[in-house]
């Protein structure tokens, strides 16, 4: 893209860009530049078609920034303004106001009036337009305050008031834009290139031109542009941009990878499964965009209160004039405005909370979902894939018949050699356990597989049978009654049993269980400190297995052997008891429960339907991320309450000073704008994940 440097300082440059860029591609260009490490901020003045780039010269040389600017090519119209933010605030009104104040004492009386009305004319016209089209709003009060001073011949007061109001507006917009900029970094397009194998050659194409099923090759430092499956290679991959987890993970075939991840070490060949707008990164962007369009009940209430406070200010001004006939007091009262801080502070706080959550691998669908997350007192967990990992693990290999001359390792190797021909999760877990122990494959004959029951194969010395107890006892006539106490002990521990026999009788058992999430106990403990007083588990497993896990995690209630269609009814039963319920799940059959709950939460590996039904999606595969989400929600609402109380309290004090004639219009404007900026800065700081003691205090407030 052509450009021309207009001005340059160390760490800052201003360039003129094409009018077509200013006409609709500002968001894409900003994102393109800010993706470069070392670029702190890129701002575009749409009217002047100029671009200001602030950067750290120690991290990125100016030449690299200019090369990236030249290389900018808009990929498609769909990348334009994914979430458009307001134009950068113009500094022109501020400069005009300052110049007027400086020149006013040097001008003759008639020229002073002309200069004043030229300076404040924009504010007067804006007030009139607002009154006609929207009714009595803060812009009307500002116009009345400035206009009264000018009409009474107090020109210097009018210009000082206008300067303070203009300065406050400028900083308010800049502060609000900072929250938009934080979220824009999460939504920024990824105009990356990809190396694709086509026609026996490796060619480079734009990331949105990769087709499903194609093989892409990713090297060190490159961004993975598709959701796909590794088919060859070994590498370390940083998924922080998607999951929030900074620690790189090892990837090799057949592991899945997601778009937006960066390859740190190694080289991968990846089969594209989802491309373009279907990738995880693109769906996350759409999720966050939809979140920003959903106003919360708190925000709607703040808007109503802010509008009502305008009438309070207008009424107070009328009353003070009726009593004192003092127009100076009236001007001072007009400049006390509750609405700016109330209306702007709430959405900025929610945006800051959404950003902090997304940075930690938590996608929250708007401020209303954040409010409901803060209000719940009960959390219901689906077991598999939520409290436990979806994959099973082998816990015990038991040799029942010692006369068969099998060791535990020999038995596991034999069963794994047969089970590798099946795709059942039990089979995969057994094969993985043998692989981890580096056990050798044992030769066998053809495998006979009976769906949902088991399998058998000829081996040296006879036929081996592996499967459920029902299959071996009912179909093969081999009974395990002699080992009943041993079986009961394993079953009571919540383990799944795989039975092994031959024609002569039982040989052994392989016990498996869900892998409890490493952070499950810590996450549940932290949730209790954050005000969740009831933790419930729903499981389709047998009662013994569910109870075993429930005891280990100290859950308040356990529902076992629950059919998928019964989950939503259990949620509704808790709600009928007066509970505010959150549900955490990951499967397709969790969809109705996610919708029925007051707040639905989907795990990172959840099915697409579960993620679409949920109000919150954890992209970081940590159960502690759920506790982080609750903490951020509580903290955000605490910030909003603090800002509301400060706004009402301080502005009421300023109003009292104005009514008593203790504050001039300039002092009133200065104090009001200072309060508004302080509230916005506090909202921009937002909620942060804090320690357990502070979390407990927030939960009680």
TrEMBL record:
Occurrences of domain P-type ATPase A (ranges): 190-288
Catalytic activity: Zn(2+)(in) + ATP + H2O = Zn(2+)(out) + ADP + phosphate + H(+)
GO molecular function: ATP binding; ATP hydrolysis activity; cadmium ion transmembrane transporter activity; metal ion binding; P-type zinc transporter activity
Keyword Transmembrane helix in record: yes
Signal peptide bounds: none
SUPFAM superfamilies cross-referenced by the UniProt entry: Calcium ATPase, transduction domain A, HAD-like
Record has Transmembrane as a keyword: yes
Gene Ontology CC annotations of this record: plasma membrane
Main enzyme class: translocase
InterPro entries: ATPase_P-typ_cyto_dom_N, ATPase_P-typ_P_site, ATPase_P-typ_transduc_dom_A_sf, ATPase_P-type_domA, Cation_Transport_ATPase_IB, HAD-like_sf, HAD_sf, P-typ_ATPase_IB
Location in or out of the cell: Cell membrane; Membrane
Family statement: Belongs to the cation transport ATPase (P-type) (TC 3.A.3) family. Type IB subfamily.
Name of the protein in its database record: P-type Zn(2+) transporter
């Amino acid at each position: 893209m052509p450009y021309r440097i207009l001005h340059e300082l160390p760490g800052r440059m201003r360039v003129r860009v094409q009018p077509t860029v200013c006409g609709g591609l500002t968001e894409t260009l900003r994102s393109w530049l800010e993706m470069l490490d070392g670029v702190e901020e890129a701002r575009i003045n749409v009217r002047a078609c100029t671009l200001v780039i602030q950067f750290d010269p120690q991290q990125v040389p100016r030449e690299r920034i200019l090369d990236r600017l030249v290389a900018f090519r808009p990929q498609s119209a769909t990348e334009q303004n994914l979430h458009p933010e307001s134009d950068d605030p113009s500094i022109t009104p501020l400069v005009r106001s300052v110049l007027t104040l400086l020149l006013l004492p040097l001008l003759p009386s008639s020229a002073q009036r002309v200069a004043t009305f030229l300076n404040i004319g924009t504010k007067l016209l804006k007030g009139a337009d607002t009154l006609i089209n929207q009714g009595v709003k803060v812009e009307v009060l500002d116009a009345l305050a400035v206009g009264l001073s000018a009409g009474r011949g107090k020109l210097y007061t009018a210009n000082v008031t206008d300067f303070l109001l203009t300065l406050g507006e400028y900083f308010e917009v800049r502060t609000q834009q900072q929250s938009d900029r934080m979220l824009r970094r999460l939504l920024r397009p990824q105009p990356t290139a990809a190396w694709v194998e086509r026609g026996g050659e490796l060619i480079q194409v734009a990331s949105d031109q990769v087709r499903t099923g194609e093989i892409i090759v990713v090297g060190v430092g490159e961004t993975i542009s598709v959701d796909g499956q590794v088919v060859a290679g070994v590498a370390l991959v940083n998924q922080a941009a998607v999951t929030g987890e900074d620690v790189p993970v090892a990837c090799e075939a057949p592991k899945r990878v997601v778009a937006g991840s960066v390859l740190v070490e190694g080289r991968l060949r990846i089969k594209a499964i989802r491309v373009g707008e279907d990738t995880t990164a693109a769906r996350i962007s759409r999720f966050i965009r939809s979140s920003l369009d959903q106003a919360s009940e708190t925000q709607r209430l703040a808007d109503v209160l802010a509008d009502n406070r305008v009438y309070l200010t207008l009424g107070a001004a009328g009353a003070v004039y009726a009593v004192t006939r003092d127009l100076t007091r009236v001007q001072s009262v007009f400049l006390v405005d509750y609405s700016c801080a109330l209306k702007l502070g709430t959405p900025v706080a929610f945006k800051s909370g959404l950003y902090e959550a997304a940075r930690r691998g938590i996608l929250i669908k708007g401020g209303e979902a954040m409010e409901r997350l803060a209000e719940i007192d009960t959390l219901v967990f689906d077991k598999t894939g939520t409290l436990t990992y979806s994959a099973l693990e082998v816990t015990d290999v038991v040799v029942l018949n010692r006369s068969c001359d099998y060791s535990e390792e020999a038995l596991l190797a034999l069963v794994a050699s047969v089970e590798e021909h099946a795709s059942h999760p039990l089979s995969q877990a057994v094969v993985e356990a043998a692989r981890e122990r580096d056990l050798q494959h044992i030769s066998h004959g053809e495998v006979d597989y009976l769906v949902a029951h088991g399998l058998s194969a000829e081996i040296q010395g006879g036929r081996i049978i592996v499967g459920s107890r029902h299959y071996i006892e009912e179909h093969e006539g081999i009974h395990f009654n002699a080992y009943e106490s041993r079986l009961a002990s394993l079953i009571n521990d919540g383990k799944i049993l795989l039975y092994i026999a031959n024609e002569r009788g039982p040989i052994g058992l392989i016990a498996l269980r869900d892998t409890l999430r490493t952070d499950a106990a810590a996450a549940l403990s932290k949730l209790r400190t954050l005000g969740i007083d009831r933790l419930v588990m729903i499981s389709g497993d047998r009662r013994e297995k569910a109870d075993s896990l429930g005891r280990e995690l100290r859950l308040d209630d356990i529902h076992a052997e629950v059919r998928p269609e019964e989950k939503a009814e259990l949620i509704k039963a808790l709600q009928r008891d007066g509970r505010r319920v959150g549900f955490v799940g990951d499967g397709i059959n969790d969809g109705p429960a996610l919708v029925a709950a007051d707040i639905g939460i989907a795990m990172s590996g959840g099915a697409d339907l579960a993620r679409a039904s949920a109000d919150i999606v954890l992209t970081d595969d940590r159960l502690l991320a759920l506790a982080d989400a609750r903490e951020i929600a509580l903290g955000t609402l605490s910030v909003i309450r603090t800002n509301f109380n400060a706004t009402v309290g301080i502005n009421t004090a300023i109003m009292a000073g104005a009514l008593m004639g203790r504050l001039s219009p300039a002092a009133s404007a200065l104090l009001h704008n200072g309060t508004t900026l302080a509230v916005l800065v506090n909202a921009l700081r937002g909620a942060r994940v804090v320690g357990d003691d502070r979390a407990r205090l927030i939960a009680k407030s």
